[in-house]
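Crash report, auto-generated. Payload:
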Amino acid sequence: MKTKSGGLRKTLPLLLLAAPGLLYFLINNYLPMAGIFIAFKDVNYAKGIFGSDWVGFDNFKFLFQTSDAWIMTRNTLLYNLAFIVLGTMLSILIAILMSELLKSLWSKLFQSGLVLPNLISMVVLSYIVFAFLNADSGFINNSILKPLGIPEINWYSEAKYWPYLLVFIQLWKTAGYGSIVYIAFISGIDKSIYEAAKIDGAGKLKQIRMITLPLLKPTIIILTLMSIGRIFNSDFGLFYQVPMNAGALYSTTQTIDTYVYRALMQVNDIGMSAAAGLYQSVVGFILVMAANAIVKKVNPENALF
Amino acid sequence: MKTKRLWGSLLSLVLCGSLLAGCGTESSSSSAQEGNGSQKVDKVVFAMPSFNRIPDDISKVTAAINAITVPKIGVEVDFRLYGPADYAQKVNLALQSGEQMDVFTTLGQFTNYASKNQLYPLEELLPQYGKELTQILEKDFGPNLLEATTMDGHIYGVPVNKGMSLPTNIVYNADMLKESGLTADQMTSLDDLPAVFEAVKQKHPDVIPFGPVNVNPSDTNLVLALKGMHKIDFLSDTTGIGVVVGNDGKVQNFYDTDAFKQGTKMMRNWFEQGFLEKDAATTSISFSDTIASGRGFSFLGGYSGMEAAKALSAQTGKNLEMKRLVPYYFDTGAVNLVSWMVSSTTKVPEGSVKFLNMLYTDQQLINTILYGIEGEDYVKVDEHHVKFPDGMDASTVPYTAMLSTGIVGSESLQYQLEGVNWSDVELKLKENKETERSPYFGFIFDPSEVKTQMSAVTNVVNQFLPALVTGVLDPDVTIPQFVKALNDAGASDIIASKQKQLDEWIAQQKK
Amino acid sequence: MIQTKGERAFHVFSIVAMVMFTLLAFLPFMLIIMASFTEESSLIRNGYSFFPEKMSVDAYVYMWSSASTFVRAYGVSFLVTALGTALGLLITSMLAYPMSRQDFKYRNVLAFIVFFTMLFSGGIVPSYILWTKYFQIKDTLAALIIPNLLTNGFYVLLIRNFYKNNVPVELIESAQIDGASELRIFYRMMLPLSVPVLATVGLFMGLAYWNDWINALYFITKPQYYGIQNMLIRLMNNIQFLKSGQASSMLGANAADLPSTAVRMAMAIIGILPILVVFPFLQKYLTKGIIVGAVKG
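Recovered output after restart:
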């Protein structure tokens, strides 16, 4: 049946289905991508964006020629690794627990609890965190440390606590939300498989290990690959607003995005900000391609492309 | 099949809807000249930041503005009003994408716009179309105000015409002061303050004597006071890298000066004695709010005239008074902070300058922009004062931009709200002429050669400065770290570049 | 259904764990609510607390004066969210389905094209020029729906994944044998079978639309098109600006009298509340299993 016309007959309708979406990506994402060249120009408004001079990699210099460069890169990478690994584990755990409780009375309440943290914006969250951590009247200092006799900590002046704090806050905000995807995919698994396993004598934990996790593998891989692509980006709100923009905490809270924002506040150069964005994109891209190649070798049908 | 039809109709509905909606709006970029019969009228886009509520519909006010500008100067104004959060974004986007944007202001950052050629040079057009403007500037400020917006002989902007001298004042809760048994006479300089703070603390143990009035990032105005005390010229930017103390012409790093060391040590003493709260460097609560809640006593602020305390009292609900402690020092940055500019891509330069001229000199125009339409948005009380119509206030009146009095036009021609003393306005203008000017007034630094270093340095300043000006970190330990980090970021390159440009400028002046 | 001891233990463990998670999730939210009902000076003096010293509805009264604006903003947000999500889901799933078919020879090309957009972007200026100059959507509802939010690589790949791994190929093959066209297979079979993932992506899209304030910032100048989050962010930013150093040097002492902290909390509540109300209705779709019975027959 695989005649040439048969081949086209099959692909054409599929292509047509895909067309609106593709068109959107073309217009919304690919056309403006031409703007990437701004990263290589010294924009002079009198000459216009197109008439300005090409300056090669000059606009990228500010990302590297500073002692902060290593710190901000290290921070961005490490935090993202922590978020990916811990976040995925936590989301899967929650998804499994939730799937267990779907029929329970409390299910609706739990589900609301999953979404709620993500709805609170980082700005508002920074006020809440401040309510807990501020040195004078903060909840932690006043209601926990003091009664226990532990001397109070000046949270916004001590950089060393913040890696733990920020990871905790990020997980709090996103783990529940991220679990929703896994819940949906778990519910897509045929229940009869579990029945069969139970009859064969498998306990809950074994069922999870043998059925749920393997069936979730494709999803886990794809989500992880996508996260790797954004490994040089960071949530500006988390790293700028929540630490209250405190200078003393820079060593553990400065990421590439916050650095660029602070740097360009004075200079306001769109060439430089375009360069920063391009830098993050290129690194993420290289890493994803590498990761995808590895996945392809091990598990070809799970690769991104 | 039903679902398919449903989707299909939904889809086409949405597409049609958006097409129609798109057709219905006026395109924002229009050609410069609009033939209006035989009369040629220039269309000028004028964007102003407003700190009041932005009304849905400003067409009435726009019409009132045009009723003044069209007959007098043949300019039709496209009046845009944006909140402060949007203003820079919208203006920049328009400039960068080639939309029409003719007359706008900086809200700081004048040098940036100038060095990127975003501004239209005005020196040829001003003598022709801006005679009244230059006259009133001279009358209200003194000679050579435009030097502060001149680079390489080109005038790129016009500073707002108002009282610009902002001496450092101590603003304090007068009731608390009295209860502690002291009077204002005991506060003559910054050094007198610790004693006052101590007395207040004794009487009110749960009150914090002092705090930063500006937050995000925290700023106690220590630097402002130091500038005035030691006559420091920041050489047109706010980083503090490359300043001149007095008139020795030597560019140095502000954070390495004795003035800074002394100032931060003083603040550190205050902090260690418990006069500031522990989170002063990172709090997001402005100290004026803390005072309003009854928990704070005082802060330092730069205010022109003598009456600012009245407005502050109204805001905080406490009886606040203020006393001047440190005089002000005019450097270029102090004056060009809010400047009005014409974009370099404008197609209507003459019209824009004509409009700019009116913006500073036509009393009717200025007050229509600020207060709206007489009778509807405001009611005149006497020659200089207005008030809101009965039963209305700033948030219920159809249109008001009264908070923008400090950023547009000429203060001498603006109406003031009832209750403001007119003689105070006159005092502010008088002090324009009396405040000491830096010998380098008019020097503007072009940072394009050291872009990378400027951005690196900004990060370092943001990192260390808030904690130092609130006394939270020990200056003896921190300042060396700070200076080293600045040098690593390229501070010396910036200083060298500034020195070079400054020397050239001084040589130019001598000619 | 006899539950083994292991099952019961797991069940109890699940409940305990989820109760803890949910408490943790709701706690800060409760704090925000309490803060919004706290009197401003009490808030500043004592910080945020579950048991405020003095309560007051001042923040809500302050916002009530702009009630009509809020209602309109809600309307805009609802409309945009509904339209955008519906349209977006349609386009996304239409694109994801061909990509999931192993016999579609362009599937990897499409996947790459789609994924690439997740990493590279030309920035706001080219986008702005494209949409305002060439498509003229400034100050229209389309400006809130189309740019950047209608779909993105993440959604496409997620739905593709679901189709690939959770819908048995046999189902599709049997439909093809029955002579169904691709379009029919898509509408009649794929869509109904993918309710959980569509609900999930729909939730993400809906939230993205609801929370978006950036499109309005760039493309809208007429206040009647502002959505609720945009309004709130503007108000909050204006308050923040007025308290900053720049403002006091420019405006002098005239910065307006604003009840800031409690109001900010009330604003946050106003932005979140509608979602919490709507979400329970959506929940059942999230966990609907697929009916695989068709294959077994």
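Post-recovery validation: The CA atoms of residues 39 and 262 of chain A lie 18 Å apart.
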